[in-house]
């Protein structure tokens, strides 16, 4: 078997999986920018919104950072994978970028 992966035939956001007589390109984990294999522990570098922790790229909880990310009045922060969302608190709705009471 020839190791086609030695020639790095895959794209930047993929890793190469050598198979008998062939190879396949597999997508890197969403937490990675470039990778050497499957999973968040095989990242070359972590994607934006992720931090290397115990050799793995883990999601940063922007809602628990010391500096608030959702600064408008009556707004709550919702953590998402690799990012966050600012939404109006319960009982409020977004009206032209401001949270007003419903």
> Any idea what the radius of gyration is?
20 Å
The coarse overall form would be elongated
Helix content: under 10%
CATH architecture label name of the largest domain: Ribbon
Average pLDDT metric: 95
Amino-to-carboxy terminus distance: 67 Å
Share of β-strand residues: over 45%
CATH C-level of the largest domain = Mainly Beta
List segments where confidence is low: pLDDT < 50 over at least 5 consecutive residues: none
Provide the succession of SSEs. Answer: EEEEEEEEEE
Kindly report the spatial arrangement of strands forming the biggest sheet: 1-2
Given the structure, what is the number of helices? 0
Named CATH topology of the largest domain: Hormone Receptor, Insulin-like Growth Factor Receptor 1, Chain A domain 2
Question: Could you explain the architecture of this structure?
Answer:
This protein has no helices and ten strands. It has two domains: 4-59, Hormone Receptor, Insulin-like Growth Factor Receptor 1, Chain A, domain 2 (Hormone Receptor, Insulin-like Growth Factor Receptor 1, Chain A domain 2); 61-96. The model has no long low-confidence stretch (mean pLDDT 95). The radius of gyration is 20 Å and the shape is elongated. Strand 9 and strand 10 (98-101) form a beta hairpin. With 102 residues, the protein is mostly beta strands.
Summed up:
Helices cover 0% and strands 47% of the residues. It has strands at residues 14-19, 22-27, 32-35, 43-46, 50-53, 56-59, 75-80, 83-88, 92-95, 98-101.
């Amino acid at each position: 078997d020839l190791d086609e992966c030695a020639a790095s035939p895959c794209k930047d956001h993929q890793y190469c999986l050598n198979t008998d007589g062939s190879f396949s390109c597999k997508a890197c984990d969403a937490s990675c920018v470039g990778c050497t294999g499957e999973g968040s522990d095989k990242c070359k570098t972590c994607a934006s919104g992720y931090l290397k922790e115990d050799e793995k790229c883990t999601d940063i909880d922007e809602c628990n950072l010391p500096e608030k990310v959702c600064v408008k009045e009556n707004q709550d922060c919702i953590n998402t994978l690799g990012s966050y969302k600012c939404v109006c608190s319960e009982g409020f709705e977004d009206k032209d970028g401001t949270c007003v009471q419903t």
